[in-house]
Each structure stands twice: as structure tokens, then as C-alpha cells.
Amino acid sequence: MREKKRAIIIASILSLIFILSAVWTAHQFLAKQEAASAAIYQNGTLIKIISTDHEETFRIEDGENWNEITVDKDGIHVSGASCPDKICMHTVWRGKGSLPIVCLPNHLVITAAPEEGTDYEFDVLTY
């Protein structure tokens, strides 16, 4: 009888931990995220700072090279590119903790915008 009671207590504790973990995880994924700002660099030069608070699509051109950038509810992504491998089109930037989108053939980088009041520029050594 004592073993059965101990097993019920352990199962209850594990169930409670599982349920609390599931609720916390669902809250993290479903909570509305605040708008974030991303900086777009080409050839190491800041081209544009965009925010995720509105939807837009625009094109960045550099000679014959181009990237079409889309901002929507999912985040910021490259929806079209002239590069041969199209790897940049398979990455979505969702906020400050996201990895940057990089298009090496077109020398394009989309990353978190520098916070206001900072005087540093984009530097590949910081990555």
C-alpha cells in the first residue's frame, strides 16, 4: 500500500511539472511579440532600418544583384533574390534574438538594429 501511495505522489508531481511546462511553452509561443527593428546592410553600409510593426515589400538593388525583402506577421524574410543558391530565402528574422539573414553573393545582411543612443557601426568581428 505504501509503494502505491508513493507511486501516485510521484506521478502527480511529474504530471504537474509537465502541465506547467506545457502552459509556459504555449504562452511563450502564442504571446504577441512587440515590434522589433532590423537593420539592412549591403557591402557593410547601412541601407535601411525597418520595423516589424507594419507589412511591406521592397527591393534592394546593387548593379545586377537584387534582393526582395518582405515584412509581414511572420517576421522579415527575403522573398526573392538574384543569387544562385537562394539560401537567404530560407531564413526568417523574427526579432532581436534571431540569427541574421545573410546573402553572401549579394553582400546583404539583415540583423537587429543598433539600439538608440549607441555609436557603433556594423562590425563583422562582433559576430
Give an account of the 3D structure.
The protein starts with a helix and ends in a 15-residue tail after the last strand. It has one helix at 2-30; strands at residues 37-42, 45-51, 56-62, 65-72, 75-81, 92-93, 101-103, 108-112. It has a four-stranded antiparallel beta sheet, with no helix packed on it. Strands 3-4-5-6 form a four-stranded antiparallel beta sheet, with no helix packed on it. The chain is α+β, with helices and mostly antiparallel strands and 127 residues long. It is elongated, with a radius of gyration of 22 Å. Helices cover 23% and strands 35% of the residues.
Rg of Cα set = 22 Å
Q: Span from first to last CA?
A: 59 Å
Tell me how many strands there are. 8
Query: SS-based structural class?
Result: alpha+beta
Percent helix range: 10-25%
| Model regions low in confidence, pLDDT < 50 over at least 5 residues | none
